[in-house]
Design a protein that fits this description.
The chain is mostly beta strands. It has helices at residues 11-24, 49-56; strands at 29-36, 39-44, 69-77, 85-87, 91-107, 116-117, 123-126, 131-149, 162-165. Strand 5 (91-107) and strand 6 form a beta hairpin. It holds the Pfam family MannoseP_isomer.
């Protein structure tokens, strides 16, 4: 999959490294965001969901003929940073640590449970409405993610985030 990251790189260098690797995998990047205080992400062309699933989530059954739609992404979480404690109304998510290191906190309530280290290659299934947070450890973490939209006619987007706590004072 991904080549190991050199952990002492600047953010822009980490993004450049991952971008090259995604292009080498023949993925079309339709958007990227390096401006998130916790790191950022790449959005992959949704029509490439089958190839993305085959590369990163081979062990997961996805019924592409159902009424759901899917959005593949790559998250990059910076060392010692974390995403907001959050949940979503219009999606569930699949996560897999594909390079580096990261942790995850999750709960069915607004109370944040202690974080657990993610294991590279292990699939994490986050239910619609499940509270969660991705956490950077000592080095950069790279997480493959699939948004499973629960309403094909009103797919989830970046505004479908209910933040319960955020280190960066975002609403």
């Amino acid at each position: 999959m991904f080549k190991p990251l050199y952990q002492n790189l600047e953010k822009s260098e980490v993004f450049a490294q991952i971008e090259v690797q995604l292009k080498n995998f023949q993925f079309e990047i339709i958007a990227q965001d390096q401006m998130r205080p916790w790191g950022g992400f790449f959005v992959i062309e949704p029509k490439q969901i089958e190839a993305f699933k085959e590369m990163f989530f081979k062990e997961v059954e996805i019924d592409l003929e159902n009424n759901l739609s899917y959005s593949p992404k790559i998250l990059l979480v910076a060392p010692n940073q974390k995403l907001s404690w959050q949940y979503h109304f219009r999606r569930s998510e699949l996560w897999k640590l594909v390079a580096g290191e990261a942790a995850i906190a999750r709960s069915e309530t607004d109370v944040e449970n202690p974080a657990k280290d993610m294991v590279e290659g292990e699939v994490v299934r986050l239910a619609q409405g499940e509270r969660h947070r991705l956490i950077g450890l000592d080095g950069w973490g790279v997480v493959a993610e699939i948004w499973v939209h629960t309403d094909r006619d009103n797919p989830s987007n970046e505004e479908d985030i209910v933040r319960l706590q955020d280190d960066y004072a975002r609403k």
